[in-house]
Amino acid sequence: MQYRSKTLKPKQKKIQATALKELCDRTNVQLIINDDIELSKHLDAFGVHLGKYDDNVDKARKLLGPDKCIGVSCYNSLNRVKEAYEKQVDYIALGAFFPTKTKPNAPRATLDILRQARSIGNIPMVAIGGITLENIETLKNEQINCIALVSSLFNSDNIELTAKQFCTILKSWNL
Q: What GO terms fall under cellular component here (predicted)?
């Protein structure tokens, strides 16, 4: 589970993230904090996810320690993939693979970019951006390790059913 808030004030973010951390702990779910190393450290979260304009991996590793998970958004940039691999991050996120209302101006990643990224090194990869029940099969044979979902779940008429449908698909992929 990733906590991401771009608009709330720090105090509000801390309140929300603390409540989410408590829920994640009760349900054995690992929590990643987006963009905020200090909040991740404060909560003793599983890790942090960093984008292009966030703090750097070296700072995150120094503050969080060697055992915390650090992920990096690489968008559609093989240079960012190479940098992330050299910094020994725990995973990278590539995308948007499909149009998305969550980030309408997000750079588009292609399956070719994903394949080239795979050739850079053995690093877990997350596919993100516009993934739906209708297009997820496009990613099936691409050796991704995880998918990120926002709109497909939260715009669904039945979030629980949609989540179960995604889980069934992903279990069949043996991720």
A: cytoplasm
Clarify whether residues 76 and 137 are in a common domain.
yes
Q: pTM for this structure?
A: 0.93
Query: Looking at the structure, do residues 43 and 75 belong to the same domain, yes or no?
Result: no
Helix, strand, or coil here: 145?
A: coil
**Are 159 and 91 contained in the same domain?**
yes
Range of the domain at 104: 68-173
CA separation for the pair 51, 78 (Å, rounded): 15
Helix (H) or strand (E) holding 40: helix 37-43
Residue 172's φ and ψ, nearest 5 degrees, are -70, -20
pLDDT digits (tens, 9 = 90+) for 57-115: 999 999 999 999 999 999 999 999 999 999 999 999 999 999 998 888 889 999 999 99
> Do 47 and 72 share a domain, yes or no?
no
CA distance 4 to 17: 9
Q: What is the CA radius of gyration of the chain?
A: 16
Can you tell me the distance from the alpha carbon of 115 to that of 156, in angstroms, rounded to the nearest whole number?
30
Residues 88 and 168 in one domain: yes
What is the tally of helices (H) and strands (E) in the chain? Answer: 7, 7
Token pair 């009760």 is found at 26
The DSSP call for residue 108 is P
In a domain, 63, yes or no: no
